[in-house]
């Protein structure tokens, strides 16, 4: 007699053997399967439903748990409690992803990396949801779907298409700054442990006295920055398409815990008045000379997920997750992402995605006006009324002080004569200033040659009109850049 298996059905009924169906045997080893075999039906039905919609962007990722520790006092800048005292520790979950590829795509492609961190604070979850380069391709959120579609597969051939990629960027040249970053060395990191994380957007830090400063978040790898060559990345994509994911997992498994320093840049409202369009334009950066990095703390990843699907695939990040003391700014892309990201999670994971373990805050949640829906895993607030200003709660509302409330005040930026309408920011010479500085002052000769080679290689098979458009676009950054690119394209054509 076989020993008891201790396995059960989904609702707890014991099973003698989860590996054998109930059948009526027939001649030749066949068997008729009855509908009463609940084990078989549950097994097949669940298998058909094991996959959830993958993220439209940032589908492929590595992730791990860790801890953030405050190392420098910035309590005069923000009332956020998790940043209040030196030595204070906060658990975190970090997810680092490619952008354009599907869940099964290679880790080592040339692509912008997403860098997301969830801080489980005593005031609820706070997320930094950024990228591994400091700027983005577009500044108008209505273009966000389009820029991502242009980086994906052609709707007819279902293959990557360089004509789509460059067609978008040539006709939306505000992307030129991000392109200079993408086609340089940092476009292919050699490890996710050695990349920089940028919050990209402008936020507000609200001090205990209610005053505020604008800020940007930076996470700098304490392992140093490392990048892979195009040839090595291509080799790794074939040998081990999960190279970055495995490399992070293996490092943590052996106790080689990666760490990042958290820094902020801050800007006074008076300085912001003079800073111009770069204030809330995510195609531009704040000059470190005028707005230096201020150290805040250290994040260390020290625990691998016990189950990737449950803890990383189901993790939901959004820049709308902000604790009191940190709030949003009138950055149009940030405003749009604050809707789009939670909405993506409602689609992927369901209306109650906050109930899932990686998204649960470590503090009690009281949101009785957000209830019901599929996969409710709580008591659903029992008999508590589901409507506001009811008799049992009207006089029990806790007051939150103005110094820590997420009161979004942007009226300081409204000017007389401002009208609601299609207020496009056209590309101007300002869009080429910072990429020009990157080319001239940051890149050395070797990096310039590498950049030209990378861009020329990406133009293989692209139409002549688009090639001319790409040369012209980068020629506006720097004539040397355009000339070198044109020469490299001619050389490649001769070969």
TrEMBL record:
One of its GO terms (biological process) is response to hydrogen peroxide. Its cofactor is heme. One of its GO terms (molecular function) is metal ion binding. Keywords: Alkaloid metabolism, Heme, Hydrogen peroxide, Iron, Metal-binding, Oxidoreductase, Peroxidase. CDD domains: catalase_fungal (cd08157). The active site is at residues 58, 131. Pathway: Alkaloid biosynthesis. Residues 1-20, 373-392 are annotated as: Disordered. Catalyzes the degradation of hydrogen peroxide (H(2)O(2)) generated by peroxisomal oxidases to water and oxygen, thereby protecting cells from the toxic effects of hydrogen peroxide. This is Catalase.
